[in-house]
Amino acid sequence: MFFERHGGGERAILVHLDGHDPSLREDPQEFQELARSAGADTVGFVSVSRHQPSAKFLIGSGKVEELRDLVQQSAVELVIFNHTLTPSQERNLEQVLECRVLDRTGLILDIFAQRARTHEGKLQVELAQLDHMSTRLVRGWTHLERQKGGIGLRGPGETQLETDRRLLRVRIRQIKQRLEKVRSQRDQARRGRRRADIPQVSLVGYTNAGKSTLFNGLTESGVYAADQLFATLDPTLRRLELDDIGPVILADTVGFIRHLPHKLVESFRATLEESSSADLLLHVIDCHEPERDQQIEQVLAVLGEIGARELPMLEVYNKVDLLEGVEPQIQRDADGVPQRVWISAREGLGLELLRQAIGERLGDDLFIGTLRLPQALGRLRAQFFAAGAVQDEHYDEDGGSLVSLRMPRAELNRLVSREGLRPAEFIEQHTLQ
Q1: Vertex 362 angle, CA 360 and 367, to 5°
Q2: Which of 305, 286, 198 is nearest to 250 (CA)?
Q3: Which among 106-115, 199-208, 261-270, 421-430 has the top mean pLDDT?
Q4: What is the pLDDT of residue 196?
Q5: Is 209 annotated among the ligand-binding residues?
Q6: pLDDT tier at 7 (50, 70, 90 boundaries)?
Q7: 92 is known to lie in a ligand binding site
Q8: Measured by CB atoms within 10 angstroms of the end CB, which terminus of the chain is less buried, N or C?
Q9: Can you tell me the distance from the alpha carbon of 82 to that of 30, in angstroms, rounded to the nearest whole number?
Q10: How do beta strands 280-286 and 200-205 pair?
Q11: 121 annotated ligand-binding residue
């Protein structure tokens, strides 16, 4: 690393600030789950009630003294705060506590660093870490203005801090260039799928809602799934066959969390764009979670940040096996369109209902029927075959072709318009009832 710090350790004390601003409120239970997911051995949990956060320590100076005594008694090497600390607050706390101090953002970044498996994922995590680190370099140097000295090295030059900042900027620029290339490759792959008329469905939801378990259940894959926060970090794509729809690409993506650091959203934009370009979002919700309404709001907020808030969405209420008297079912709106599906991905309950609901939602823009084409429209018939849309073909007594089609309605309208015909009138006149 670019700066000196106290040696890290796994024995940790967790500090939770119980304020009175609902918008800044954090969940203490979720905080403990985050620490467990990072591999911390929690030896103490300190909850501090405070109306106004302290600019110097976030918590009061009296509580800092109590915390220092607890650190010394427990031989703790790490104190984690369930809130975002400013660089100066981290520096002040480390000086008093004489151990490493980590805030909520740093904790999430550490979990992401552990979970990253692909080259892209590691680059995204490193970018977020460097962005976070760039504001905290000062703390690592007690010799802020020390310049390199010695024979031949005297004179004006950059300080060690300036050198580190320059190295950071160079590395950040290199990573952004690589990720831009990854984004370009993903765009090209998505354009290829669109040309092949293959719909894409993305799983989104709060972390640990069961997305990967559902992904494995639908696609019979072996994606890593565990009862821990951010078990999935790298996006995974699999092919899924649906009745009356055909092949669909299903994407499993990183989970969201309340107050997800903006640096992470920016760094993972290339990954999150898999969701922003989807034809349908499956919003997986833990129906057994007491704070599921707040979790839904947080997911919708992140979707808004990546421009996916207005995409078609099907809510999937998972873990129905943990609720009494609730059976797998499809809930529809007044027009009969599926809006929610209640399932248990772990037990495999309701997966067929979910497949049915996905098919219905994707099939809204799909034409499935038989058209009677006179011999004069032989070129249009050939285009249907070229598009792979013809399921079957027969001939009537007049030599006309009866073709059974399954294709996106937009593509059908485009081919019909190319022949100089009005799509709506043509389809109505030539569709066999």
Answers
A1: 90
A2: 198
A3: 199-208
A4: 61
A5: yes
A6: very low
A7: no
A8: C
A9: 10
A10: parallel
A11: no
List, for residues 247-273, the tens digit of each pLDDT value. 888 988 777 777 766 666 766 666 676
- 410 pLDDT exceeds 80? no
Same fold yes or no, 11-102 and 197-363: yes
Does 318 carry a binding-site annotation? yes
252 among the known binding-site residues?
A: yes
Is 255 flagged in the annotation as binding? yes
The answer to whether 210 is annotated as binding is yes
Query: pLDDT digit string (tens) for 266-284?
Result: 666 666 766 777 889 999 9
Contact predicate 215/202, CB 8 Å? no
Output the pLDDT for position 197. 63
The percentage of the chain sitting over the pLDDT mark of 70, rounded to a whole number, equals 82
Average pLDDT over residues 283-309: 89
197-363 falls under which CATH superfamily?
A: P-loop containing nucleotide triphosphate hydrolases (3.40.50.300)
- The reply, when asked if residue 206 is annotated as ligand binding, is yes
- Tell me: is residue 321 an annotated ligand-binding position: yes
Q: Is 320 annotated as a binding residue?
A: yes
Tell me which of 3.30.420, 1.10.287, 3.30.70, 3.55.40 is the CATH number of domain 366-430: 3.30.70
Number of CB atoms found within 10 A of residue 95's CB = 10
What is the length of the chain? 433
CA 290 – CA 29 distance, rounded (Å):
12
Please check if 131 is assigned to a binding site. Answer: no
Residue 246, annotated as binding a ligand: no
CATH of domain 11-102: 3.40.50.11060
The pLDDT value given to residue 153: 45
Question: Is 234 a known ligand-binding residue?
Answer: yes
Q: Per the annotation, does 344 bind a ligand?
A: yes
Q: Where are the domains of the chain?
A: 11-102, 197-363, 366-430
- For residue 296, give the amino acid letter: I
Q: Is 319 part of any known ligand binding site?
A: yes
